[in-house]
Amino acid sequence: MADRRLHLVSLPGADDIHREILPNGITVLSRANFNSPSVVISGYFATGALFESDDKLGLADFVCSALMRGTVKRDMQKIFDALESVGAGFGYDSGTYTSSFSGRSLAEDLPLLLDILSETIQFPAFPTDQIERLRAQLLTGLAIRAQDTADMSDLVFNEILFEGHPYARPEDGWPHTIRSITRKDLQAFHRRTFGPRGMVIVVVGAIEPKRAVDFVQRALGDWKNPSQAERLNIPDQGPLRKMKRRVHKIAGKSQSDLVIGTIGPRRKDSDFMAALLGNSILGQFGMMGRIGEVVREKAGLAYYASSSLSAGIGPGTWSVSAGVSPSNVQKAADLIVTELKRFVQKGVTKQELSDNQNNYVGRLPLSLESNGGVAGALLNIERNELGLDYYREYAGKIRAVKRRDVQAAAAKFIDSERLAIAIAGP
Amino acid sequence: MKKDFKKTTLSNGLTVFLKEIHTAPLVSSWMWYRVGSKDETTGRTGISHWVEHMQFKGTPNFPSKVLDQAVARDGGVWNAFTFMDWTTYFETMPADKIDLGLRLEADRMANSIFDPKEVASERTVIISEREGSENEPLFRLGEAIQHAAFRVHPYHHEIIGDTADLQTITRDELYQHYKTYYVPNNAVMAAAGDFDSKSMLARIRELFEPIPAGTTPPRLARHEPVQTGELRLNVEGPGETTYLQVVYRFPAASHPDFFPLSVLDSLLAGPSNLNMFGGGISNRTSRLYRSLVDKEYAVGISGGASATIDPFLYTFTITVHPKRKPQEALAALDTEIARVQSERVTKAEITRAIKQARAIFAYGSESITNQAFWMGYSEMFASYNWFLTYLDNLSAVTPADVQRVAREYFRPQTRIVGTYVPTGNGRASNGR
Predict the structure, then answer these.
(1) Which among B95, B137, B241 is the nearest to A2, CB-wise?
(2) Is A248 found in the same domain as A314?
(3) CA A256 vs CA A332, A419, A420: distances in Å
(4) pLDDT tens per residue across all 426 residues of chain A
(5) End position of a domain, from candidates A158, A185, A220
(6) Count of the separate structural domains present in chain A
(7) What are the tens digits of pLDDT across the range B407-420?
(8) A143·B322 Cβ contact <8 A
(9) Same domain, yes or no, for B189 and B246?
């Protein structure tokens, strides 16, 4: 039914990704897609929560949220008026190692998007009234987080798994740290950590790539910050030495959230692909893999019960999450731990591995059909130094994983006697 | 928008929409049934959603686990959604694998088993799904408001149903519901993507035409009497955050006033995004953001309505500023509504709303799944032509239209004001 030649052509590769490094250090990647009249920009820059002190947790998030609240040239209303008048959107998001931005518009409005990026990232004004308004919004967000069983189980999970490590700290801070952050803190953090070095911008959509690079050069080519801080390294984190379990009570809730897991691979680790496929078998494939089968389908204990692998520049996590009735928490936890044990001891079947490999290869065109999907793929390539032909070679890399690789990765990262177990609920 | 699609009705009454899109090697196929929570009577609430769950539990040809794994193995995604007016199932797959999606959709239109053991297991899963929703303050508030808004019309209950009914609905009731509504003459199929329409239609005929037509099921639609005074209600629950929802009566999507009201929604609360895939845009320059959030009555404001068969609701959701009382936020909202009723909006504001809608449609057009979605979705509450002429209809809206609908629909006598009153207990995890 379909023309199979389309398949390869539709995947991004070295011949249709334009990559260029501007003289000030900004890396630009662009790929054209004229199937829709829209364009996406997205990227990251080298600042984040790693630069925060314990008593100012949430500072990077506060700064990123404040960038759109006014610049030395125009106030917040003028910034958003420019964007929303043309149906465009743009915003920032903070992270631990890097922070990010993304936006989209009709292709004709790409220069406007880049102009907003350039102005807000270089020249934020941090107006006092906006900072206080934002502070109230951030504090409300933390009050909502404190009531969210999924958010709090994740937070507690990171606290016990990464004890003593920067990842143990919540990126959005605590109420007392958000209250303590001053305008001077915001300005100083911006001055010290923002700069073009380490910044990556991706442009995907109805624009010729070289033209896109010209637009980026015009918008950000002059940005310099000689005092931009050097990147901080993310320390390693060893495996847990014993089972760690913590319950966080939230009164009045009708459901508990449960997270059980361990330290996982970094994205660049050689066993990442094996862990990725193993995780899919464990708690993703079909109706949430083996975990979904045991916890949801057979026991009927949860609407959602799945596993996830989170792998980035620093140590990752490999975890199982479920939302269960408070009276069934222990039963669900026992089923999950038993399943983890079986996964490590018995490994995966030939059929399971083959099914999951087919799934990963087969779903690639779907994940890359939108401009946002392609932009995410290009950022993945750049951040993890995967090579411009990564997605063309992807099928081979997936199919190269053997059953023994999956079992070795499972055994390396998962010890069913030494897990972090976090529960939030009534 | 281009009319580049083919519409056919099969001999058994199944309506089929096909749209070729050759930009990626994908096909998205959707099957829509005219059944939802509005077709449920007391004692059976939630049954349409539960039937949707059971449709993943297998047929003799595709046993339970086989279905999931077969789709995933081929690199596809599939899912289903139940709404008040409809239930839909979709598969988006590599183009050369879509036949599996067609075969399983034809099979489960008529042959689902509804094994009692699977029914029992799914009962606790759905109760768990409801308990998860009950954790959310806005679910609890929204449920109370919906119930207050519809005493007579079956839009009065949440799609997931009431716990009392989820505990008692039987396997035979589920099966009966399935057999009543899942007939080809009560369904619309829509496929978009990398296929040849002629051969695709031939394959659909081959798979679906053997399924006999059934009695076209009646829809429940007890008319809601006119509301004759503002209703106010409180819901209490844990937390520190006060939410205010102010809800007005909204016409059916097929009503001509839907379009000036969409422009009004865009001006007041920012443009609503009707796409299921593709996302929307921010609302910082909307009138209500400026008057409520910028003036610190609220920390967040949103507004929107669903496209429905019968008149439903337009909802403003306000997250009240911690230093304010909900009545202060309500007064600020009322001031803005009064303004749009007394002063005509400008033509430029309408032009801006149209450009925003055009951009949102462009974002949605990146996804083949979203394009297939629209063909069936719009047929459920109006027709595909509603979607194709949407931007034209918005363009025809005048400032006088906007003022008229603001006066007609945003009247305090026909609204419901609901407040989520937090009872505290939001301590941080480490007690700091």
Answers:
(1) B95
(2) yes
(3) 11, 19, 16
(4) 333 434 445 799 999 999 999 999 999 999 999 988 899 999 999 999 999 999 999 999 999 999 999 999 999 999 999 999 998 999 999 999 999 999 999 999 999 999 999 999 999 999 999 999 999 999 999 999 999 999 999 999 999 999 999 999 999 999 999 999 999 999 999 999 999 999 999 999 999 999 999 999 999 999 999 999 999 999 999 999 999 999 999 999 999 999 999 999 999 999 999 999 999 999 999 889 999 999 998 898 999 999 999 999 999 999 999 999 999 999 999 999 999 999 999 999 999 999 999 999 999 988 998 899 999 999 999 999 999 999 999 999 999 999 999 999 999 999 999 999 999 999
(5) A220
(6) 2
(7) 999 999 999 999 99
(8) yes
(9) no
Q: Could you say which of A84, A176, A365 has the minimum Cβ distance to residue B25?
A: A365
Measured CA to CA, the distance from residue A383 to residue A379 in angstroms comes to: 6
B126 touches chain A (CB under 8 A): yes
- How far A77 CA lies from chain B's nearest CA (Å)? 6
Contact B73 A359 (CB under 8 A): yes
Determine the pLDDT at residue B422: 96
Q: B146 or B425, which is more confident? A: B146
Same-domain status, A186 and A302: no
Contact by Cβ (8 Å): B160, B129: yes
- State whether residue B201 sits within 8 Å of chain A by CB: no
Check CB contact under 8 Å for A323 and B319: no
Longest dimension (CA), chain A: 62
Residue A27 lies in a domain: yes
Work out whether strand A18-21 and strand B231-237 pair parallel, antiparallel, or are unpaired: unpaired
Q: Are B92 and B41 in the same domain?
A: yes
Q: Residue B18's beta-bridge partner residues?
A: B6, B191
Task: Select from A21, A27, A1 the least CA-distant residue to A98.
Answer: A27
Q: Is residue A318 part of a domain?
A: yes
**Chain B residues near residue A136 by CB distance under 8 angstroms:** 296, 299, 321-323
| Same-domain pairing of B192 and B309 | no
Residue A236 located in a structural domain: no
A250 and A210 belong to one structural domain = no
Question: Which domain covers residue A298, as residue numbers?
Answer: 244-425
Q: Total domain count for chain B?
A: 2
* Residue A137's CATH number: 3.30.830.10
Interchain CB distance below 8 Å, A362 and B65: no
Nearest to A87 among B56, B195, B355 (CB): B355
Q: Does B356 touch chain A (CB under 8 A)?
A: yes
Same domain flag for B338 and B384: yes
pLDDT per residue as tens digits for the range B25-78: 999 999 999 999 999 999 999 999 999 999 999 999 999 878 888 899 999 999
Residues of B in contact with A395 (CB under 8 A): none
Nearest Cβ partner of A300 from B23, B121, B285?
Answer: B121
Smallest CA–CA distance, residue A426 to chain B, in Å, is 10
Which of B174, B208, B242 is where one domain is finished?
B208
H and E: helices and strands count for chain A: 17, 11
Q: Are strands A27-32 and A200-205 parallel, antiparallel or unpaired?
A: parallel
Shared domain check, B203 and B241: no
Number of H helices and E strands in chain B, helices first, is 16, 11
pLDDT digits (tens, 9 = 90+) for B68-104: 888 999 999 999 999 999 999 999 999 999 999 999 9
Whose structure tokens read 């102010």? B246
B143 with B265, same domain: the answer is: no
State whether ipTM is beyond 0.95.
no
Buried b (16+ CB within 10 A) or exposed e, A25-52: ebbbbbbbbebbbbbbbbbbbbbbbbbb
Does A232 map to a domain? no
User: B78: domain range?
Assistant: 6-208
Q: Is pLDDT at B1 greater than 90 in this prediction?
A: no
Give me the mean pLDDT over the B343-357 stretch: 92
| Contact (Cβ atoms closer than 8 angstroms) between residue A201 and residue A41 | yes
Kindly determine whether residue A83 and residue B282, on different chains, have CB atoms separated by under 8 Å.
yes
| Sign of the dihedral through C-alpha A147, A150, A153, A159 | negative
Q: Which CATH number do you get for residue B79?
A: 3.30.830.10
Q: Residue A300 is nearest to which of B75, B122, B363, comparing CB atoms?
A: B122
List chain B residues with CB under 8 Å of A369.
Answer: 23-24, 26, 366-368
Residue listed under structure tokens 């799944």: B369
| Residue B224 counted as domain residue | no
Determine whether the interchain pair B428/A133 forms a contact, defined as Cβ–Cβ distance below 8 Å. Answer: no
